[in-house]
Design brief:
Elements (H helix, E strand, L loop, with lengths): L10 E5 L4 H12 L4 E5 L2 H15 L3 E5 L5 H12 L3 E6 L14 H29 L2 E6 L12 H20 L5 E6 L4 E2 L2 H4 L5 H4 L6 E2 H14 L3 E2 L3 H12 L2 H15 L1
Parallel strand pairs: 1-2, 1-4, 2-3, 4-5, 5-6, 6-9, 7-8
Bound molecules: NADP nicotinamide-adenine-dinucleotide phosphate (NAP).
Keywords: Oxidoreductase
InterPro entries: KR_dom (IPR057326), NAD(P)-bd_dom_sf (IPR036291), Sc_DH/Rdtase_CS (IPR020904), SDR_fam (IPR002347)
Family: Belongs to the short-chain dehydrogenases/reductases (SDR) family.
Length: about 270
């Protein structure tokens, strides 16, 4: 599996490109010569990034200010993507909430499911028929190590990322031989605005610097893995250890351990 060749007409789409891993994915794709469609709610940030990337790399960069949790806005974007030559889709936008589910804002929890799972499904379904017809395309899905294990104190997020992880790995096998690839990016802690959005004040103190990965390193590992047709990319030693413990520790053991961990960080 290799990535489709960038052309003046095709596009790489990055959701959640206004910050963190998504901004770094956009940068990495522009450096590789891809013209882009950048998606997030903060269109002003996307425009600043678009101007910088087109000046630095000579690519065309389009901006779509879109709330992917809003079904009408998302449908408009999905319809547009279905009608265009999309070479690469990076389904990356997402956020988390922490705390016991019964205490959390039900609307924000539902928004999380809509963004982290339903939007990933929707946009993938929009671009997939075109990719399969062209026998070329690549889909990156940003899941998480949180999706490998139960998340008491982080239940909605863990469940949405379990969807993302399983969906990506299922598709990857389903698409074998079609010329279309699908890779899961399943990071552990990455320094971005993620913690601020989730209102996590203690995470920084709990985890030493050495355990964090930069957004740039996570994005580069993801794009290298996508180009190689890798099933799953897990950037950094800590995330690799989390993956093994999350997948192989008995649920009855890891559940209470993670409950204690999440209580410390919230
Ligand atoms: N950082 C970590 O430790 C970590 C670990 C594992 C997995 N991840 C995953 O990595 C992905 C990227 O997160 P990040 O760490 O880069 O966090 P981030 O810096 O907070 O970026 C999140 C991006 O998602 C966008 N977004 C949020 N809500 C949206 C909505 N309703 N519609 C459209 N876009 C929306 C944000 O843009 P706007 O606010 O402008 O809309 C922003 O561009 C997420 O899926 C996250 O779950 C992160």
């Amino acid at each position: 599996m290799s990535l489709p060749t960038p052309t003046p007409g095709n596009r790489a789409v990055v959701t959640g490109a206004s910050s963190g891993i998504g901004a770094a994915l956009a940068e990495g794709l522009a450096r590789r010569g891809y013209s882009l469609i950048l998606v997030a709610r903060r269109a002003d940030r996307l425009r600043t990034l678009a101007d910088r990337l087109s000046a630095a790399h000579g690519v065309t960069v389009e901006v779509r200010g879109c709330d992917l949790g809003d079904r009408d806005q998302r449908r408009q974007l999905a319809d547009e993507l279905a009608s265009r030559d999309i070479a690469i889709l990076c389904n990356n936008a997402g956020f988390a909430s922490y705390g016991d589910l019964a205490q959390l804002d039900p609307e924000r929890e539902a928004d999380q499911v809509e963004l982290n799972s339903v939007a990933v499904h929707h946009l993938t379904l929009a671009v997939l028929p075109g990719m399969v017809q062209r026998n070329a395309g690549a889909i990156l899905i940003t899941g998480s190590t949180a999706g490998n294990q139960p998340g008491p104190g982080n239940a909605t997020y863990a469940a949405t990322k379990a969807f993302a992880n399983t969906f990506a790995e299922s598709l990857r096998t389903e698409l074998s031989g079609t010329g279309v690839g699908c890779t899961l990016l399943a990071p552990g802690p990455v320094r971005t605005e993620f913690g601020d959005v989730a209102e996590l004040s203690n995470l920084d103190k709990l985890l030493p610097d050495a355990l964090w990965v930069t957004a740039e390193d996570a994005a580069e590992a993801a794009l290298a893995g996508l180009a190689k047709g890798k099933r799953r990319v897990v950037p950094g030693a800590f995330a690799k250890a989390q993956t093994v413990s999350g997948q192989y520790t008995p649920r009855a053991v890891i559940g209470p351990v993670l409950r204690a961990v999440y209580r410390k960080i919230t």
